[in-house]
Design brief:
The chain is mainly alpha-helical. It has a domain at 7-41 and 94-182. It has eight helices and no strands. Helix 1 runs antiparallel to helix 5 and helix 3 (43-63) packs antiparallel against helix 4 (73-90).
């Protein structure tokens, strides 16, 4: 286990993030629409998220137990740094989606690490959330245009985004309840 987060901490932070992000979409729909529809092609946001993902991956390679591969640690660290720089330089198109995909994959590990060897059956809600991140992260990292397409789909009909944002707020509330009273 790399991270020292408890399931309660992870569930609380994740629930809070869901409530804040989806609540913003509900409370400021015009500003959120403008930001979300521009985000997939926003260069500075994409570079910032990719730098964060690269640094997180590099930190993970420095600290994870590589077992029989420990003698290659330096190569993995350098490859992670160089790979992140090359992605920023040569894959500028829809970089935000690609970086978000990598961050979702890295975040899924945090969720699964916190739920590891826990006996509560409701931990499966966090685990399902983690595997949803894995699936979404793989799609976004490989095909970042899906972020643009999904956001455009939600804003095509004005009724869809409030429903999706409301579902996100409810899911965040469920995670907060779990963090405060179950875990």
């Amino acid at each position: 286990m790399i991270y020292d987060f408890t399931l309660q901490q992870v569930s609380f932070v994740l629930g809070l993030l869901y409530i804040l992000s989806h609540g913003y979409v509900l409370l400021q729909p015009k500003q959120a629409e403008k930001f979300l529809l521009a985000a997939p092609r926003h260069a500075a946001l994409g570079v910032g998220l990719m730098v964060l993902a690269t640094l997180w991956f590099t930190w993970l390679m420095v600290n994870v137990d590589l077992m029989e591969w420990h003698h290659l640690r330096r190569i993995f660290v350098i490859a992670g740094l160089v790979g992140g720089v090359l992605v920023v330089i040569y894959m500028k198109e829809l970089l935000t989606g690609r970086a978000l995909g990598v961050l979702l994959l890295l975040a899924a590990y945090v969720l699964l690490d916190a739920a590891f060897l826990r006996d509560e059956p409701l931990k499966l809600l966090v685990v399902v959330n983690a595997y949803a991140y894995v699936i979404a992260g793989m799609f976004l990292a490989a095909s970042p245009y899906y972020l643009r397409d999904v956001l455009s789909l939600f804003y095509r009909d004005p009724r869809w985004m409030p429903v999706a944002a409301g579902a996100g707020v409810v899911w965040g509330g469920v995670l907060l309840v779990l963090a405060c009273w179950v875990f």
